[in-house]
C-alpha cells in the first residue's frame, strides 16, 4: 500500500468498537475526541465535562475520600476500580 492509498483509508474509515466491551458512553467520548472533522471534535472543556469523564472523577473522588488516611490502600483500590457496565 502506498502513501496515497493509506491516506484515503485513513480519511474514509471510522473507528469500530464492535467486539469490544467499551460502553456506549465511552464510545461517544472516544468518537468525539477522535473525530476527523474539526467542527465535530470536542473542545477540551467539552471533554472534561463529558459524562464519562465526570463518572471517572466521581469514582476517583469516592475512593480518595474513603482511603485518604491510608495512601497504600488508596492506590490499591484505585488500581482495582472499574466503571460499571452501564457507563
Question: How would you describe this protein?
Answer:
It is a single chain. The chain has helices spanning 3-12, 24-33, 44-48, 51-67, 71-80. It is built from 5 helices and no strands. It starts with a helix and ends in a 7-residue tail after the last helix. The protein has 87 residues and is mostly helical.
Short key terms for the protein model shown above:
single chain, 87 residues, mainly alpha
Radius of gyration: 18 Å
Structural class determined from secondary elements:
mainly alpha
Shape: elongated
Tell me the number of helical segments per DSSP (H or I, 4 or more residues long): 5
What is the helix content? 55-70%
The total count of strands amounts to 0
Characterize the biggest β-sheet. none
Q: How are helices and strands ordered from N to C? A: HHHHH
Low-confidence stretches: none
Q: What would the average pLDDT be, to the nearest integer?
A: 88
Distance between the termini: 39 Å
**Oligomeric description of these chains:** single chain
Beta-strand percentage range = under 5%
Amino acid at each position: 500500500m502506498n502513501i496515497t492509498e493509506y491516506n484515503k483509508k485513513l480519511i474514509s474509515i471510522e473507528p469500530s468498537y464492535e467486539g469490544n466491551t467499551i460502553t456506549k458512553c465511552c464510545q461517544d467520548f472516544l468518537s468525539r475526541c477522535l473525530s476527523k472533522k474539526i467542527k465535530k471534535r470536542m473542545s477540551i472543556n467539552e471533554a472534561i465535562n463529558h459524562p464519562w469523564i465526570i463518572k471517572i472523577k466521581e469514582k476517583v473522588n469516592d475512593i480518595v475520600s474513603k482511603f485518604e488516611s491510608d495512601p497504600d490502600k488508596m492506590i490499591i483500590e484505585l488500581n482495582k476500580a472499574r466503571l460499571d457496565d452501564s457507563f
